[in-house]
Specification:
The protein is mainly β. The protein has strands spanning 10-18, 25-37, 50-54, 59-64, 70-76, 81-89, 110-121. It has a four-stranded antiparallel β-sheet, with no helix packed on it. Strand 3 and strand 4 form a beta hairpin.
């Protein structure tokens, strides 16, 4: 959860995913259910926020939050676990030209997105 973000902020969180099965599996991560509510100035956060998703070894994704789709997280051995860091960035575009332009477009806006992990037997 990233609340009350302002331009220039980066908010990070972590999640640990483990293959608790007895067989190897191929894991993927899908971004779904993007819900974007513009504030009174009409800005949609999904148009400006970026996200980086990485584990200790690899960067799964770095780019716009509204373009993630499905990511290949690779094979996991039985009992293998990996910790992923999700970092969301609200870029600062500098001084806005007015109270309803630039970064002020996003004032009062909100969005949510779900991340779903899937495992398939290898």
């Amino acid at each position: 959860t990233a609340s009350n973000m302002k331009p220039g902020d980066v908010v990070s969180g972590i999640v640990t995913i483990e293959n608790t099965g007895s067989l190897a599996g191929v894991f993927s991560l899908t971004a779904t259910n993007l819900s974007d509510t513009p504030g009174s100035n009409g800005g949609k956060l999904s148009d400006v926020l970026s996200i980086t998703i990485a584990d200790d070894n690899d960067k799964l994704y770095a780019g716009p939050i509204n373009s993630i789709g499905t990511l290949d997280a690779g094979p996991y051995a039985p009992d293998e676990e990996r910790t992923y860091t999700f970092s969301v960035t609200f870029p600062d575009s500098g001084n806005p030209g007015g109270s309803t332009s630039g970064d002020n477009l996003y004032q009062g806006s909100s969005m949510s997105i779900d991340f779903v992990w899937t495992a398939m037997q290898q």
